[in-house]
Amino acid sequence: MTIGLDTRLREVLGKKTWEALKDGLGLETVGDLIGHYPFRYAQRGERTDLGALEIGEDVTVAAQVRAAVQKSFVPKGRGRGARPGGKPRDLLEVIVADEAGRTLTLTFFNQAWRAKELVAGRWGLFAGKVAQFRGRLQLNSPQYQLLAEDAADPGSAIQEFAGTLIPVYPATAELPSWNIAKAIHTVLDLVPTPPDPFPRALREDLKLLGYGTALRQIHRPESHEALGAAKKRLKWQEALVMQAVLVRRKAEAAGDAATAYARGGALLDAFDARLPFALTEGQRQVGDEIAAELAGEHPMHRLLQGDVGSGKTLVALRAMLQVVAHGGQAALLAPTEVLAAQHHRSIVDMLGDLAQGGELGAPPEATRVALLTGSATAAQRRTVLDEVKTNAAGIVIGTHALLYDGVDFADLGFVVVDEQHRFGVEQRDALRAKAKRTPHTLVMTATPIPRTVAMTVYGDLETSRLTELPAGRTPIATHVVPYTDQRWMTRTWNRVREEVAAGRQAYVVCPRVGGEDAEDNGGNGDKRPPLAVVDVIEYLRGGPLQGLSLGLLHGRLDADEKDRVMRAYAAGEIDVLVATTVIEVGVNVPNATAMVVLDAERFGISQLHQLRGRVGRGAHPGLCLLVSEAAEGTSSRERLDAVASTTDGFALAELDLEQRREGDVLGAAQSGMKSHVKLLSLLKDADIIEAARAEATALIAADPQLKGEPGLAELVDDLAADRGEFLEKG
């Protein structure tokens, strides 16, 4: 039977297998299955790390049987006060170990016959969900495949097996790795060598394997060297396709026509004249870049990175004023209502009467700043929509509500997307589609982005960085506090009281809401649930912070309540704000000087860096206390110590990338990522990504539609069709 990569798996595999592949892993075609690469390779004589197993994780481990013990027990009765009863049951406990001597228990109920197979000395692959019983890790009724040994000559059999690389695949409970391997071997034997989509001249120049050879070696590696060559070839293909999508998108956008907004203008000049401080050198430089691009006839597409407190909002506001001064409108898209409302308040405050366009006594160059969120009342929405449609509002700030039908701009010329990682390309494009001509676009993030991530995720944008903090920003001291040490905890809450007594304010941050929260405990085994704001605030009110004014803020509150709490906190009416991560970005209360992050080990490095950026924004030094149960020497504690050791967000971003999985960075669940990028590592393959960027730029410049490379063009078009999901972040 001759098959191709587009052949449906149901045509070549048994019903049970192809249904399991489709339902469990989303694999429907031969190409999908062959593209389901192993995530590691087991090898006899090579250590299998049983010490890294996590409770609740589905695993496949290679290990050796040490012992098999048959036991008998009587099941306990069910319900309160029940006594043991029922018929005795058989339990087979099998102890397996890796080369380092770490052990794992396998349990089988009423399957005593397995003791004949699972004899001491046999090696096998064992698959199941990791559980814990009486302090020991175990797999309950795991599936397994024993590895054959030549009984006549066990020494040579072991030596032969020691050189064999066994692929271990991402699997499901119903479909273990070895069944996936059998299915892949079946189709590999049937499918002919597929056409090679990689440009031949480039492949020869880079000395890469052919596509068919690479596919076979990734699944059936003859040696470590062959496996390395296969990975290199497939990584290069992933990188080249991805970069070609971004380079072509960037080239296409550069060819669009946009409205040119001359530098300066009465509104921007009036605002600059009122600034009570000087711009930093970085703000001036980036501002000049943006101003020049806004004055051009082709649309700006720029990413503005700025560490916490670097003044991105001011840079964006000056750009918006340049557009509004010449008759255009600017829209600022924010991911949450809290952040949108904060932007609205701060921009209105910075503009003063320049935000009172149409009102008696306002300067002639003044405009209006409108706010539109999903919780706006019908009357509020009608007012805003009218201001937007008539151009009475030059600046429009909002959440996803800006994307809805019925929000019609008079002349949208500039789109600013804040915290871009929380939006997808399709959402960005939905707002830009409301413009008569392609608008200029500025996307901002306060989350420092490693170079390879910027090149990969934001590769269709020019990039600017703000690294200099404005004058007046004070240092933030960060310390790790052991949750289990009562003396340290007492001192932590006393420090909060001291700050309040000095006339300042504080935050207490918790990982979840609580109450009727349906979230699981987020932990493993018998680990306690993460602390919740609704519980913590009651504890603080009746305990260590008794007598202080405490406020509660989380994402489940309605918009009016969130706004009321934030206004009260900003006005100094609340001493301590107990909140979830809704305060992570954009919240600006200069009088807040202290932050206590509870269960800090449950947050990522970049998230902790963002959170602590809420303090130290005024004239007084900031203090951030990371409260954690993480023990010394653990990876969790090392992450917290890293955050405490530096306030350099870009250095922390690189460390964060080292410690996170690739899928966490790019969104492995997104269809484009799942289909196209599986082997490429943003951390380890920076050289391939950079080189692929240069090659893609040359290819697209010479042949924008890649008509001379039809195989590559098909892959590029396929990924481009998925780009909304592929580039969706968060």
From TrEMBL:
SMART domains found in the cross-reference section: DEXDc, HELICc
Top-level taxon in the UniProt lineage: Bacteria
Domain named Helicase ATP-binding: residues: 293-466
InterPro entries membership: DEAD/DEAH_box_helicase_dom, Helicase_ATP-bd, Helicase_C-like, NA-bd_OB-fold, P-loop_NTPase, RecG/Mfd, RecG_dom3_C, RecG_wedge
GO MF term (any one): helicase activity
Pfam families registered for this protein in UniProt: DEAD, Helicase_C, RecG_dom3_C, RecG_wedge
Domain Helicase C-terminal: 488-658
Alphabetized UniProt keyword annotations: ATP-binding, DNA damage, DNA repair, DNA-binding, Helicase, Hydrolase, Nucleotide-binding
Entry-linked PANTHER family: ATP-DEPENDENT DNA HELICASE HOMOLOG RECG, CHLOROPLASTIC (PTHR47964:SF1)
NCBIfam families: PRK10917.2-1
Protein name: Probable DNA 3'-5' helicase RecG
Source organism of this protein record: Glycomyces niveus
